Amino acid sequence: MASHQTQAQPGSVDPEEVARYTALAEKWWDTTGPFWPLHTLNRLRVAYIRDRLCERLDRDPASARPLEGLKVLDIGCGGGILSESMARLGADVHGIDVTPRNIAVASLHAQGQDLPLRYETVSAEELAERGEQYDLVLNMEVVEHVADLPGFMAACNRLVRPGGYGFIATINRNPVSFLVAILGAEYLLRWLPRGTHQWRRFPKPGELESLLAADGLEVIERIGVRVTPFTRGMSLTRYLGVNYMLMTHRP
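That's the Ubiquinone biosynthesis O-methyltransferase sequence above. Prediction below.
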């Protein structure tokens, strides 16, 4: 597992966000701890990503390694929850994060599992400057934490090769999302630590779509995620008012 410490960070990196996730780093793989919503969400989104990609690439989603041969980037990989899931589907995964402790946790958890993945402490901007490109770029629950969304998205878009795909997952910005994602999840239900999200940074779908279109990426599917408070369950929905995902393609 590769790990690389970068010196200067681009403008999209918020030091306060890095400090917050550094403090939480050791809890990534505790399925009953502060990251339990991510573990629940991960099961839902991995199946969604697998099925949609297989549909587009004419592959069997029920096969043992349906994503074999695909070069995948997991931006803001955290402790590696999504990265490991994609690697188990056969993808060649590169997980990146700007928080060194997250990369250390992810690398440690992956040791001895013989998975086709590597981790690196590097930003999307730095990776784009190196000219890297991928068959699939995963940008999940990251855009609402960056300080410079246009700059960050421009770098992420450059990382999708011609013919490649991308998935973005985030939270909409409207009164409903404030009630559900901030007041509900952080203050009333206490599913997330207070301060996890800043409502003003939630991007509306149209804002992301404009940034994608500017770099030649088209949105080919939009889907929402419904959360059931009583069961802590999550399911897909056509309602994009709170949690949503965009599937993108570069022709």
